[in-house]
Amino acid sequence: MNETPSQTVGPYFAIGLPWPEGPYAVPAGTPGAVWLRGQVTDGAGDPIGDAMLETWQSGSEGRGFARCGTDDDGCYAILFRKPGPVPGPDGTTQAPHLAMSVFARGLLHRVVTRVYFDDEAEANAADPVLTSVAEPDRRATLIAERGDDGYRFDIRLQGEGETVFLAF
Amino acid sequence: MLDVHPPLAYDGYLSTRLRAPARSPLVIPATVTELTGPALGERDFGKLDNDLTSQHAGEPLGERIIVHGRVLDRDGHPVRDSLVEVWQANAAGRYMHDLDRHPAPLDPNFSGAGRCLTDAEGRYRFVTVKPGAYPWKNHHNAWRPAHIHFSLFGRAFTQRLVTQMYFPGDPLFSQDPIFNSVPDPAARERMISRFDLEATEPEWALAFQFDIVLGGASASVFESDEDDE
User: Is B147 labeled as catalytic in the residue annotation?
Assistant: First the structure.
């Protein structure tokens, strides 16, 4: 069958897509739940106030979906529980990660990335996706930094420090 | 062969210029992360609502329509029990959104958003009003063809799709960069719904059929022998 093409979410998705519990991959108060926070910026470094992020995790430690629109400062926050290792191709093991989609006006289809965690250095060093990114500064765009109440993960859509986006 | 999906960098659509990534994506094998996906339902976001004409005290103004179709995977199998979300402008071409400054009237009886789940055959159905065309600032005298935004999940992260449904014969297609960003003319046609006289309800509402085909593999394709999903 021939696929239906993608189109942009446009500037007005907020009338239909967000819901109050959307940013919660796990309910508030879940043991081990932490925040993933970050900012989405464009090729000029300006915040994108009309982006929407979705995360998905399928690991044994927790399976969950979250959706969050960015605020006027381009910021988002998602409550989740860090997953465990995930089986990879050919018997490999992938480091704990989330899959992330980014939608926005000006994106004719979503862009996809992964969120890894900087306190998983050993697992990250053996991860097939991370190790396939040769330049350390590019690889760093896929790794969230541990902070007070969770992790920080910024997304730069274009230009200096551009996030590594994925296709499959 | 021309791509099904639009390129991220498409000069005719100004908003892509600072938002389209400059680098090519890193191609990775789809793993269990990508081959699975959420099965969203009412426990997640509250009540489903596939009738956009009955969300307020009165009926919205405009041409009442039925929009229905099937969600299929690339092998033609129905995508069952899967969330379909829609949002749209009202009949005057105005979204109920703070940033929409088009000087057309809001309709207090129309919010313009709905959700439903596909049935066992992958079917969905909405009752709504036909959205109006509206101007935007992309280029001189730019107008968006009438459209309804669709969000689809499929069975796996790989299959996630956001698209727009258009109406047959719209005179605005030729000047719309978003519609024309799809390189293959045949693929563009697949975003245009079909007027459906059979599903039209006499003395009540016109019907339009819009079938959606999701690309991307899902885990159930590989597990179908052992997993009778």
Answer: yes
Smallest CA–CA distance, residue A100 to chain B, in Å, is 9
Phi and psi (nearest 5°) for B153?
Answer: -105, -30
* Binding-face residues of A in 121-160 toward B, CB within 8 A: 128-129, 132-133, 157-159
Backbone angles phi, psi at A131, to 5 degrees: -70, -15
Q: Rounded to a whole number, what is the distance in Å from the CA of A147 to chain B's nearest CA?
A: 25
Instruction: Answer yes or no: pTM beyond 0.80.
Output: yes
Rounded average pLDDT per 10-residue block, chain B, 229 residues: 92 98 96 93 88 97 98 96 97 97 97 97 98 97 98 96 98 98 97 98 98 86 38
Q: What is the CATH number of domain B14-223?
A: 2.60.130.10
Cα torsion at B140, B189, B76, B27 (round to 10°)? Answer: -40
Which residues from chain B sit within 8 angstroms of residue A10, using beta carbons?
149
| Domains of chain A and any CATH numbers | 13-156 (2.60.130.10)
Q: Give the pLDDT of residue B1.
A: 72
